[in-house]
Design a protein that fits this description.
By secondary structure, the protein is mainly β. The chain has two helices and eleven strands; from the N terminus they run αβαββββββββββ.
Length: 196
């Protein structure tokens, strides 16, 4: 379904209608406004694939939260299905945040993260979270003990939150922490906006 747009049309046949059947320009504009308002409430999604960390992984220092980065330059990046009211992107690669600037209060944001962590040593504990700088709050979505394994570990997790004015100024960070050091590669983030 697409928004309604008016273009000039010509018709070589005219006929007189009874007053009761006539539609005025005001009627049509009211219909257009109503349909377009519904269209503007629809949700959508974008997938952002990273390219940089494939060759230059994020260095993780023990017991320190690190921001996950995503340059959106991977060949799998797909923004075709973003909500119609989003003119920019849902991920800001300059600040490495989920960009809430164009998302109205009350929308639900679903975030799927896909990354790989290679620990430098065994027996590490890892955590990941969404961090909201405006209110110093966090939503944890990963807690794992690596045990004696210290090779590559692939994590795909999904978490959701709702948007309100308290979290819109500084947007939302995706962060990772481990009890030891290692390297982290971001595969991609899928950001979905739900409307009700």
């Amino acid at each position: 379904m697409a928004k309604i747009n008016f273009t000039n049309k010509t018709d070589n046949q005219t006929s007189e209608l009874a007053e009761i059947y006539k539609v005025t320009a005001a009627n049509v504009n009211e219909i257009k406004t109503s349909v377009n308002a519904l269209y503007d409430t629809l949700g959508g999604f974008a997938f952002y694939e990273d390219a940089t960390t494939e060759t230059t992984p994020i260095q993780v220092t023990a017991d320190t939260w690190v921001d996950l980065t995503n340059d959106k330059a991977g060949s799998g990046t797909l923004t075709t299905y973003k909500p119609s009211y989003i003119t920019g992107d849902l991920w800001d690669s300059a600040t490495n945040t989920i960009d809430l600037d164009e998302i109205a209060n009350g929308k639900v944001v679903v975030v799927r993260t896909d990354f790989e962590y290679t620990a430098d040593s065994s027996n590490q504990h890892v955590d990941a979270r969404l961090y909201f700088p405006d209110i110093s709050k966090e939503l944890h979505f990963l807690h794992a003990d690596l045990g004696s394994e210290h090779g590559a570990h692939h994590y795909v997790n999904t978490i959701q939150f709702y948007v309100d004015s308290n979290i819109q100024t500084s947007d939302v960070k995706i962060q990772f922490q481990s009890s030891g050091s290692g390297d982290l590669k971001v595969n991609g983030f899928m950001i979905t906006i739900l409307s009700f």
